[in-house]
Design goal:
Distance between the termini: 38 Å
Shape: elongated
Oligomer: single chain
Order of helices and strands: EHEHEHEHEHEEHEHHHHHH
Structural class: alpha/beta
Length: 269
């Protein structure tokens, strides 16, 4: 890898990305990091052998800048970066809800911007990273973003108009599964199981179901029907889920997440 990449605001997701890049073959000498606290910068340098620099230094020397700060901190970061970012730098944003136009307005005219929504399974190399091009980003810029984020999972290109829906479905998606596991574990306790056994049963069921969804090629309805015997236990459970409007609640929840993503894009934080 000959391109120099800087990860700015290296928190948990930024560190996961950095670690994934190194495992994927990027040399630490080609990577830079920035952090708000010197202690954090020193930690990243010791852990990965990468140089920790200021935001201005990163902007001047890296070919690709990956902005991983929180959405509410992005405006201050861009004000700091703007005087130092030439128009030939690729800027990748991982901030939820912020459109590429926001960056294009604040950086040099013609700056290529790529928007990426990843999720927390990046920490275990099972992320889903959704990638969209800004006005000046080319196919080569998208490919570079894919090369970077492939180190922590899968990538998918979508039009930017679909990013809010992807945020609701995938960016927030892991939380819905954690919520479901929590509820099912509580149900297991109610049914008389110790918490640790209920947890293990549900987690393994979730892992097995996910692998079957990924690898079998079957529609989820077909996989569910394979478990659902006539007059059996599963169909009785499914009936109760439908009676309590679980399907409608999930649809409403994802719509609410999408709407909040749109609000963040307009600055209504």
């Amino acid at each position: 890898m000959t391109q120099k990449v800087a990860v700015l605001g290296t928190g948990k997701i930024g560190e996961a990305l950095l670690s994934g890049m190194i495992r994927g073959g990027w040399a630490p000498s080609d990577l830079l990091v920035t952090a708000r606290r010197q202690e954090r910068a020193d930690q990243l340098h010791a852990r990965y052998g990468v140089d920790a620099v200021s935001n201005a230094e990163a902007a001047k020397s890296a070919d690709t800048l990956i902005l991983t700060v929180k959405p509410q901190d992005m405006d201050a970061l861009l004000r700091e970066l703007a005087p130092h970012v030439p128009a030939d730098r690729l800027v990748i944003s991982g901030a939820a809800g912020i459109p590429t136009a926001y960056f294009e307005e604040r950086l040099a005219t013609g700056t290529p911007v790529v928007r990426v929504m990843t999720n927390t399974p990046a920490l275990v190399d099972e992320a889903m990273s959704v990638i969209s091009a800004g006005t000046h980003a080319t196919g080569a810029h998208l490919t570079r973003a894919e090369e970077i984020f492939a180190g922590v999972g899968k990538t998918l290109r979508v039009p930017e108009s679909q990013q809010d829906a992807c945020t609701a479905l995938s960016g927030s998606g892991p939380a819905y599964f954690y919520f479901l596991v929590e509820a099912m574990t509580d149900a297991g306790i109610l049914l008389g199981l110790p918490r640790d056994k209920a947890h293990d049963l549900i987690v393994q069921a979730a892992i097995g179901a996910a692998v079957m969804l990924r690898d079998s090629g079957e529609h989820p309805v077909k996989l569910r029907e394979n478990v659902t015997s006539p007059a059996g236990t599963t169909i009785n459970a499914i009936r109760e889920l439908e009676n309590h409007g679980v399907r409608a609640a999930l649809i409403a929840a994802l719509e609410a997440a999408r709407d909040r993503s749109r609000e963040l894009a307009t600055g209504n934080g």
